[in-house]
């Protein structure tokens, strides 16, 4: 499908049943997420990671973590979602997508704190403790504990 023109894909999409959209996107190799939960599930599968491992890495209570992922609980504290996403060791694009799907502002390069976090992600540094070290060295607010 990836080698098809947009016109060809549009014609194929018009013939696709609404219930077959996920397979269509999968065949297109397009990561279509219908919510934060789908995104997390996909990332866990890609990493071969369990939810329990995720919550341990993110330093989140398991019960609360499940509620965040399922949408049963919602937080306005971006640091909790940052911790959850960082535990998945995302690339920059995945981090932005995860934040966006949760309804949080993406990382912004003009914000000093976000710039440090972006730089850490780009360098493969994912533990909040190590990132907090760089934030502290630069006089910036650290990623809070849940």
Structural summary, described in words:
Helix content is 60%, strand content 0%. It is built from 9 helices and no strands. The mean pLDDT is 88.
Describe the SSE topology.
Blueprint: H1 6-15, H2 21-28, H3 36-47, H4 51-58, H5 62-70, H6 78-86, H7 92-102, H8 112-122, H9 128-137
Helix pairs in contact: 4-6, 6-7
Cα-to-Cα separation, first versus last residue = 43 Å
How many beta-strand runs? Answer: 0
Structural class category: mainly alpha
**Main β-sheet description:** none
Order of helices and strands: HHHHHHHHH
Radius of gyration: 18 Å
If you average the pLDDT, what whole number results?
88
Salient structural properties:
2 domains; 146 residues; single chain; 9 helices; mainly alpha
Provide a short characterization of the protein structure.
The protein is mainly α and 146 residues long. The protein has helices at residues 6-15, 21-28, 36-47, 51-58, 62-70, 78-86, 92-102, 112-122, 128-137.
């Amino acid at each position: 499908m990836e080698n098809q023109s947009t016109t060809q894909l549009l014609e194929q999409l018009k013939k696709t049943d609404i219930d077959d959209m996920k397979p269509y996107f999968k065949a297109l190799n397009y990561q279509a997420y219908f919510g934060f939960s789908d995104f997390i599930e996909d990332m866990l599968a890609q990493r071969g990671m369990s939810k329990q491992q995720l919550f341990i890495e993110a330093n989140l209570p398991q019960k609360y973590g499940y509620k965040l992922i399922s949408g049963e609980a919602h937080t306005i504290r971006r640091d909790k979602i940052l911790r959850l996403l960082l535990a998945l060791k995302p690339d920059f694009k995945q981090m932005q997508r995860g934040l966006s799907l949760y309804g949080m502002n993406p990382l912004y390069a003009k914000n000093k704190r976000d710039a440090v976090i972006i730089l850490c992600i780009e360098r493969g540094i994912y533990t909040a403790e190590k990132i907090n070290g760089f934030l502290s060295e630069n006089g910036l607010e650290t990623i809070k504990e849940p």
